[in-house]
Amino acid sequence: MYFCHHFPYLEILYIVRSTSISLYHLGSVHFSIHHRCFPSQGRVERISRIEAAGFGPVPDPFVPRVQIVVTIMGSYADAADESPVAPNALLTPYQMGQFSLSHRIVMAPLTRSRAIGHVPQPAAALYYAQRTTPGGLIISEATNISQTATGSVDSPGIYTEEHIEAWKPIVKAVHDKGGIFFCQLWHVGRVSHTAFQPNGSAPVSSVSERLEGEVILPNYERAPFSTPQALKTEEIPLILEDYRKAARNAIAAGFDGVEIHSAHGYLLDQFLKDGFNTRTDRYGGSLENRCRFPLEVVRAVAEEVGAKRTGIRLSVFQFHDSMKSSDPIGLGTYLCEHLNAASILYAHFVEPRMRAGQASIQTEENLHPFRKAFKGTFLVAGGYSREDGIKAIESGYADLVVYGRLFLANPDLPKRFALNAPLNPYDRSTFYNPNQVKGYTDYPFLNGHKLSPSL
Ligand SMILES: Cc1cc2nc3c(=O)[nH]c(=O)nc-3n(C[C@H](O)[C@H](O)[C@H](O)COP(=O)(O)O)c2cc1C
Predict the structure, then answer these.
(1) Is 283 a catalytic residue?
(2) Which of 109, 246, 394, 418 would bridge 145 by S-S if both were Cys, CB 3.0 to 4.6 A apart?
(3) Domains of the chain with CATH codes
(4) pLDDT tens digits for 143-199?
(5) How much distance in Å is there from the Cα of 5 to the middle of ligand 1?
(6) Which of 139, 185, 385, 405 to mutate to test the pocket of ligand 1 (most atoms within 8 A of CB)?
(7) Residue to substitute in 104, 358, 424 for testing ligand 1 pocket (most ligand atoms within 8 angstroms of CB)
(8) Is the distance from the beta carbon of residue 353 to the nearest atom of ligand 1 less than 6 Å?
């Protein structure tokens, strides 16, 4: 009897006796035991539920004459939907470089504002562990690469020894459950206030144009965003160095890799978009110049931690009113070509339908051109349901689908998608909030357990 840790949905496998071996075909079920595929002919007995299937390396051809009879015991009798559901494309395995993913459902980077004083707290270990599945990919909340990079209250940092030490047990908690954990590296640029900056100086950006709206200060009061200072050409290498150091720190904390946050109107986006970046030096003007700094960051980070541990998040379509690109397809395609040259692991694109504040609009635009242009693993995010996600994988539109709000509110999202079970609604009022439990680690699991033993 095996307890299958690789696929949380296939809980117990009995191997009964041996007589013959042939190509794997087990009804419609491939099964995996301890990361290995047993491509054998056999019978599936007493399947109470089959939620997912996967296969690993080709089996040892010299294993002689093995007949395997498998009984897959359903252990989710308490699931809301009792009817068996067909395995779906989201639950198929995927090899992302050196990382063997057991399914395609990725947890999105989600700022939660629970890192008091920018130091990750112990509750984060439980929060992330709850959302970990063996072989599942998790992208951390956006994590400040320096004090200058900071612009939101209680967002974590990864630029001091204290930060590294605080992240270690959190990363360990994810690894202990077999998860793969990337750290999202964040520089907010102008989306900040002097109260967050070293010596109360102005935040930095590509140009000196203030963001409309208000920021929540460290003392939880509201204030208008501060007017940024445009980075001088000779200051850019200092920010590159901050990225390098933060990437190095993330690996020192145990993360498997890093995702460069180049989306959503933050610093790197402030360089990419021609509706905003009106610089006249080598970092502004032409497409090549606007992409120069973000691509320098990519190369610096890849050099530091390895291209195969480096991903990037992009939102090239209009995300904020103040941050427009006149040619998002040209911008994204140019970036993809250069990301290919840097051989990074993945590109994570936000759907054009997404707008700031998680609003969604109707649009004919899509991510097809970038899927075609980018050679590495392609992640898509923004407004995905279970059904959309299945279609995205089945049609080849994406390799992996990233879920934000659904994962936030459903710690066992892969299992719920496997069972096509109902989802917990999210509570927006607790998205960003220092409470270490409410709206953080207290969303219910399907079976009522906080931490399902098999996940
Ligand atoms: C509470 C919350 C925090 C977020 N924080 C981040 C973040 O730190 N970094 C980031 O790139 N996107 C962030 N986002 C955007 C999500 O990653 C995701 O792209 C967005 O929620 C749309 O996906 P969804 O429809 O699956 O929720 C955040 C979204 C929410 C709801």
Answers:
(1) no
(2) 246
(3) 1-75 (no CATH), 89-430 (3.20.20.70)
(4) 999 999 999 999 999 999 999 999 999 999 999 999 999 999 999 999 999 999 999
(5) 29
(6) 405
(7) 358
(8) no
Distance 70 CA to ligand 1 centre (A): 41
The 10s digit of each residue's pLDDT in 203-223 is 999 999 999 999 999 999 999
pLDDT at 14 over 60: no
CB of 269 closer than 6 angstroms to any ligand 1 atom: no
Residue nearest to atom 19 of ligand 1 (CA): 382
The three-state DSSP-derived secondary structure of the chain is CEECCCCCCCCEECCCCCCCCCCCECCCCCCEECCEECCCEEEEECCCCCCCCCCCCCCCCCCCCCCEEEECCCCCCCCCCCCCCCCCHHHCCEEECCEEECCCEEECCCCCCCCHHHCCCCHHHHHHHHCCCCCCEEEEEEEECCCCCCCCCCCCECCCHHHHHHHHHHHHHHHHCCCEEEEEEECCCCCCCHHHCHHHCCCEECCCCCCCCEEECCCCCEEECCCCEECCHHHHHHHHHHHHHHHHHHHHCCCCEEEEEECCCCHHHHHHCCCCCCCCCCCCCCHHHHHHHHHHHHHHHHHHHCHHHEEEEECCCCCECCECCCCHHHHHHHHHHHHHHHCCCEEEEECCCEEHHHEECCCCCCCHHHHHHCCCEEEEECCCCHHHHHHHHHCCCCCEEEECHHHHHCCCHHHHHHHCCCCCCCCHHHCCCCCCCCCCCCCCCCCCCCCCCCC
Does ligand 1 lie within 6 Å of residue 384's CB atom?
yes
Among the listed residues 24, 76, 159, 266, the single catalytic one is 266
The model's pTM is: 0.83
